[in-house]
Amino acid sequence: MSIQDYHEFLDQILIPEHVLQNRIRELGAAISRDYAGKDLMLICILRGGVMFLTDLMRAITVPHSIDFMAVSSYGVGARSSHGEVRITLDLRSSVEGRNLLLVEDIIDSGHTIAAVIDLLKTRRPASLRVCTLLDKAERREADVPIDYRGFVIPNKFVFGYGLDMDEHYRNLPFVGVARPDKILPPD
Ligand code: IMP
Ligand code: MG
Q1: Does the beta carbon of 114 lie inside 6 Å of ligand 1?
Q2: By the 8 A CB rule, do 141 and 110 touch?
């Protein structure tokens, strides 16, 4: 598979690169205001959130640290999480007493982030907020408080800008809607 092949999977570009980048600068400015003088730790959920994290970090002007978690909810080809979430990589740092900001690519049913929030709360952080680039609000099943939100998007499968289509095309600089006939059926 090469980068050119994405055209055959792309229905339309939903959020072009410059729109993404402008919004991320706004989010970074808001986060910088809210966390002025506080010790901030960004927690990125691998792998979809990586591209958003690295751009968001550059838009945040207050000192902060980063750490990573990996969670598995979707297998290749599966298109919905069923509330069954496994932590496959845990944080390296202790979060007790820290101000945590979870950085997610997309919140869909909300089960993934809800499970991560439940786990992190048991470790007694000073505060815990959520920043998601994309919010598929229509699909929400779990009640998740979202403190910073890039874009509300329609209930369509999207890829690019960190989000994969069966592990490919995370490198695209825009968010695109997948052609419905190209999406694999769930497991
Ligand atoms: P949730 O638990 O249903 O909220 O699922 C969240 C996770 O599902 C995200 O972190 C993504 O990895 C994945 N996901 C949900 N919708 C999409 C999509 O449209 N494209 C790619 N990945 C998605
Ligand atoms: Mg993800």
Answers
A1: no
A2: yes
